Amino acid sequence: MEEKETAPVEITDDIGRFAETYSSFNNIINQIQRQYLSLRETYEEQSARLQEVNLALQKAISDNRIVSEFLSRILTSLNSGIMAVNQKGEITHINPAAQKILGLQKNLPLEKPLSYQALFEIVDGNDYSAETAAAGGQTCLNAEKKIKTCDGRSVTLLTSTSVLSDESGAVIGAVEIFQDITNIKRMEEELSRTRVLAGLGEMAASIAHEVRNPLVAIGGFAALLARDLQAQPDKLSMAEKIVAGVNNINRTIETLLVFARREEISKVPVDLKEFLEMVISGIIEEYSLQGQKVNIHLNRGDTEGKRLLIDPHLFRQALYNLAKNGIEANPDNPSITIRCAVFNSSEAAHLAEKSEETIPQDDYLLIAVDDFGRGIPKSDLSKIFSPFYSTKTNGTGLGLSIAWKIIKAHGGEIQASSRPGHGTTFSILLPLNQEVQR
User: Fold this and answer.
1) Are residues 206 and 296 in the same domain?
2) What are the CA-CA distances from residue 333 to residues 18, 171, 294 (Å)?
3) Of the candidates 207, 206, 235, 203, which has an alpha carbon nearest to the alpha carbon of residue 222?
């Protein structure tokens, strides 16, 4: 009987403990639910805040990209060259205009460090560079410097430099902005030379006319005197020397008048082959009459059938002066070579050391006169087209000036290059008028 009475009591205790446990579990579940709801609310708030931050960040990135692209377009579209370097003198940025001015390949890779000094050779103005500014803080504004580019051109730059600093003011590099003013400098030099030529021409013409009148009288009297002194050889010789001297002065005066004359260009189409052969045969014949044999080799290159729009008389004079200069450069070997070739505008710009934008889009004829003389020192090359400048004992210094004047009047370019001990080359570039070729 006792066992039967004890069983219900134990069951009742188990039920009570289960109820307590269940109640405790419910409390825990309720607490977890409240925490979950609180956490969810917090998550939603943080998620909303994070979304706002993400949107703001995306907008900032987008704005920065727009600004960056805008600045990049500005740098790309500028005609001025821009370079940035770090303190090691390594290029960190270079825009397309700078690459073009410096004769570099397009889209120059900057993955590997590229030295500032590797881009070009500074001929004059070494202090005016981004490298100097980055290393020592020495800046410049609108300073001129001359460089030799990667493709071998001599270029004059107008450059300005500034120091680059970080937020704390520490120097991290420098930037250089420059423009190619080679053509401007050349135009200034040509304008100056033209003014000098005009002034000297007027003076030469005035002097020539003043000298010519008494010279004619001296020559006439000397000729009469020589006629009357046929029986006195010693005195006759002196009279003949006077006549020869007067003739020499007369030739110089004729040259002065040619130099001073304002040429009227009368252009007509001429066949290049026929014209050059006519000029060469005339030069050879003239020297032959003086008892001198000269050799002129003609290399017409790819100019078969080409025609020139020139003044034949004046252009012959220019070529004659250049040929005569070459022949006289080496009396022991009076030989020259005349070479011809056709170039497009890009190649012609490179030959003339000009930018492509400054010359018309056309084909160009090169006529080069090579001699085999002793050459011209580099210091004299810039003077050879100046009037009255000559290294010859009996030279007037007007032959090359007249040639320069005639070539310019035809809208052409003329340049001289020389290697002392190896000879000199005079190069003429003329536009090949397409209408004349038809």
Assistant:
1) no
2) 130, 62, 8
3) 235
Inter-residue contact 353 to 153 (CB < 8 Å): yes
Q: Give this prediction's pTM.
A: 0.57
Same domain, 233 and 176: no
Q: Are residues 270 and 283 in the same domain?
A: yes
Whether 52 is in a domain gets the answer no
Residue that is last in its domain, among 180, 197, 231 = 180
The residue type found at 422 is: H
Cβ atoms < 10 Å from Cβ of 182: 20
| Distance, C-alpha 229 to centroid of its chain | 65
Q: Which structure tokens are listed for 324?
A: 């005569």
Question: What's the CATH number where 300 sits?
Answer: 3.30.565.10
Task: Say how far apart CA 16 and CA 8 lie, in whole Å.
Answer: 12
DSSP string, 60-98: HHHHHHHHHHHHHHHHHH-SSEEEEEETTSBEEEE-HHH
Question: Among 399, 388, 405, which Cα is nearest to 263's?
Answer: 405
Q: How do residues 170-211 score in pLDDT, each as one tens digit?
A: 888 889 899 888 888 878 877 777 777 677 667 766 776 677
